[in-house]
């Protein structure tokens, strides 16, 4: 069973100016431990697709199952739970809370998961260590570089051990060197077993992914496997 | 605990906009301060009235000559009084529930003792005075019935008079002169303190009724045993109203007043007057409390306004929280707790300010004030309620936000 199964997934905006079909019947399966790069011209529906599979938005047509759960059937609380446990989202603009230090930002998903303060502290520190920022735990976003801020955001996305990491142009606001470091981090995380779907405009980045999906006008126009998903890594998660 | 953490993060959100938060709280601060101060001053006033009733003596009525309604003019000081010793005696004897009927005359007097000289009020009284006014001597003794009957020239001093004339000396058995009449001091009254109007009730002297009438106060009293007024004390509060009726009938009969004629006396229920004063003090505090409530309302609207602004400003934060797994109700409670924390801090500041104001009024205006724990608890509870009530709508707006729209908003 694939981690993500979309069937004819569509998202239509009814605007005063007319109907906009942002996503037009996308059927896609994504397996666990895959590393999928989503590419395509601007306005082709990449972000729309990401928001739908990230349960931030609701489709206007078609179906979507995440880890076997039919997402359409969930209410607001059910979606919140799914976002909390199964999905880690990394944004182009980092979206860190400005008044809270790195540790606090990483703790946030665990607050809503209902973990105790001590557990949160411990696991947030671990997550920060995983992205190489263990020594910046008490820095506020303003006191961190863009790359460091994005690492904090990645740590936050990882901290509840989600089955899926979604990143919509995570390096879009970073210079190329920092962007390469962040990409290296994603690859490392993928090797450790995290399923990643990542939107990028960078063909170089696209080449590093196991699979490349290209969008145009709300449809998938190309779906290419570049590297086989390592069968050994598909074994039950023993490392966790 | 989650609530504790939520309150802590509410604090940091409030501190992030300290000045704005302070200005927002101002309505609550002023409202609560007004409530606390008004209630404190109001209950101080009521306390004062109670104290006044107590210092006057409970269940008391006073019969005065003349009729207040007679052309609006009270009986002048020089006119003959219509009340007499015998009236008092008749009231004491014939009216049910009367425990004392104390006729008295009063006037101003200079008291001289050795080199000292003191101007004070003098009362000519009989033996019932002490029980009617619930007042006794602190030193020495009161008049004995013989002294009253004969009108002996003996005198009781109020504390203030005793202190001013004799200082630390023992005044008992000393001679003081009033209008050149040498009175022998037989006792010093217990202290009554200030009256409601700031009068020193201990600045007074007492002599037997006849001694006062004949030798000191004079005027028209001496002629026919007439008296200035009569205090009537009843056993129970319920005796007062029917008692006053009966006294009125009795005096009309005794004074041979025909059905068409007006009374030549008037009777006032002093306990009732005191109660009325207490009631109007109550009404006043209710009124001021209403004003304070309006201020609380305005403060609440201020909180609602600032919370709406805050929700708009922090739309992205809300979107992010939703994206990492906050449920709508988590967002709702976050903003509700923030609003409530804001209003409760305002309430706490208001309580401090109100207590301070009440204290200041007490100090500067000499007006007694009584800060009650109840008022403080109520104010705290109310300000929290204001936060919950006025914070609900903004919090609900925050909770209803769509995650993706909230994240996209700048
Ligand atoms: N909230 C919205 N209301 C109306 N139309 C929208 C909305 N969001 C997206 N669209 C439309 O949907 C289409 C797809 O948008 P989307 O953001 O998915 O593109 P994208 O592939 O992410 O582009 P980019 O590479 O520029 O980020 C666009 O034509 C856009 O105008
Ligand atoms: Mg996009």
TrEMBL record, chain A:
CDD domains: ABC_MJ0796_LolCDE_FtsE. Gene3D superfamilies: P-loop containing nucleotide triphosphate hydrolases (3.40.50.300). The keyword Transferase does not apply. Residues 4-240 form the ABC transporter domain. The keyword ATP-binding applies. It comes from the Bacteria. One of its GO terms (molecular function) is ATP binding. Keywords: ATP-binding, Nucleotide-binding, Transport. Belongs to the ABC transporter superfamily. This is ABC transporter ATP-binding protein. It comes from Microvirga splendida. The lineage of its organism: Bacteria, Pseudomonadati, Pseudomonadota, Alphaproteobacteria, Hyphomicrobiales.
UniProtKB/TrEMBL annotation, chain B:
Keywords: Cell membrane, Membrane, Transmembrane, Transmembrane helix. The chain crosses the membrane at residues 21-45, 286-311, 335-362, 374-393. Its main location: membrane. Residues 21-247 form the MacB-like periplasmic core domain. It is a multi-pass membrane protein. Belongs to the ABC-4 integral membrane protein family. This is ABC transporter permease. It comes from Microvirga splendida. The lineage of its organism: Bacteria, Pseudomonadati, Pseudomonadota, Alphaproteobacteria, Hyphomicrobiales.
């Amino acid at each position: 069973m694939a981690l993500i199964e979309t069937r004819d997934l569509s998202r239509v905006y009814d605007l005063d100016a007319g109907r906009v079909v942002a996503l037009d019947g996308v059927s896609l399966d994504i397996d666990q431990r895959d590393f999928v790069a989503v590419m395509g011209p601007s306005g082709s529906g990449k972000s729309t697709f990401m928001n739908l599979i990230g349960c931030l938005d609701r489709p206007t047509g078609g179906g979507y199952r995440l880890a076997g759960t039919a997402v359409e059937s969930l209410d607001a609380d059910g979606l919140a739970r799914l976002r909390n446990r199964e999905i880690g989202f990394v944004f182009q603009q980092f979206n860190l809370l400005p008044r809270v230090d790195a540790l606090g930002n990483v703790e946030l998903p665990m607050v809503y998961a209902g973990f105790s303060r001590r557990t949160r502290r411990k696991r947030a520190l671990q997550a920060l260590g995983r992205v190489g920022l263990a020594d910046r735990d008490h820095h506020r976003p303003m006191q961190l570089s863009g790359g460091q801020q994005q690492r904090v955001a990645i740590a936050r996305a990882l901290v509840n051990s989600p089955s899926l990491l979604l990143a919509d142009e995570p390096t879009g606001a970073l210079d190329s060197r920092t962007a390469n470091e962040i990409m290296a981090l994603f690859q490392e995380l993928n090797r450790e077993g995290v399923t990643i779907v990542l939107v990028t405009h960078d063909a170089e980045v696209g080449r590093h992914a196991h699979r490349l999906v290209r969008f145009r006008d709300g449809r998938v126009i190309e779906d290419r496997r570049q590297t086989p998903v390592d069968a050994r890594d598909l074994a039950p998660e023993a490392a966790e | 605990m989650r609530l504790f953490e939520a309150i802590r993060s509410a604090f940091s959100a409030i501190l992030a906009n300290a000045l704005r938060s302070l200005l927002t709280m101002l309505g609550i601060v002023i409202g609560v301060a007004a409530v606390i101060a008004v209630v404190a001053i109001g209950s101080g006033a009521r306390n004062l009235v109670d104290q006044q009733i107590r210092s006057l003596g409970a269940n008391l009525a006073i019969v005065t000559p003349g009729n207040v309604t007679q052309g609006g003019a009270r009986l002048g000081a020089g006119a003959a009084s219509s009340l007499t010793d015998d009236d008092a005696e008749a009231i004491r004897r014939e009216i049910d529930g009367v425990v004392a009927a104390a006729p008295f005359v009063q006037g101003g007097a200079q008291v001289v003792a050795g080199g000292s000289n003191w101007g004070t009020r003098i009362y000519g009284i009989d033996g019932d005075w002490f029980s009617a006014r619930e007042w006794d001597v602190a030193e020495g003794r009161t008049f004995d019935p013989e002294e009253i009957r004969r009108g002996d020239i003996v005198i009781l001093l109020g504390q203030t008079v005793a202190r001013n004339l004799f200082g630390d000396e023992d005044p008992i058995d000393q001679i003081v002169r009033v209008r050149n009449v040498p009175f022998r001091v037989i006792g010093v009254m217990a202290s009554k303190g200030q009256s409601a109007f700031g009068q020193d009730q201990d600045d007074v002297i007492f002599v037997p009724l006849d001694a006062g009438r004949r030798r000191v106060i004079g005027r028209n009293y001496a002629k026919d045993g007439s008296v200035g007024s009569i205090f009537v004390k009843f056993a129970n509060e319920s005796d007062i109203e029917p008692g006053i009726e009966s006294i009125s009938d009795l005096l009309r009969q005794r004074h041979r007043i025909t059905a068409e004629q007006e009374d030549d006396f008037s009777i006032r229920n002093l306990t009732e007057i005191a109660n009325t004063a207490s009631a109007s003090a109550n009404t006043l505090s209710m009124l001021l409390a209403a004003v304070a409530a309006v201020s609380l309302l305005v403060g609440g609207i201020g909180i609602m306004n600032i919370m709406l602004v805050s929700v708009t400003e922090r739309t992205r934060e809300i979107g992010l929280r939703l994206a990492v797994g906050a449920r709508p109700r988590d967002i709702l409670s976050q903003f509700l707790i923030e609003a409530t924390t804001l209003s409760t801090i305002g309430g706490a500041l208001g309580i401090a300010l109100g207590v301070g104001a009440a204290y200041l009024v007490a100090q500067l205006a000499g007006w007694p004030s009584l800060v009650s724990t109840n008022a403080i608890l109520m104010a705290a509870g109310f300000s929290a309620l204001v936060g919950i009530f006025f914070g609900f709508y903004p919090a609900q707006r925050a909770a209803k936000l769509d995650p993706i729209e909230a994240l996209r908003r700048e």
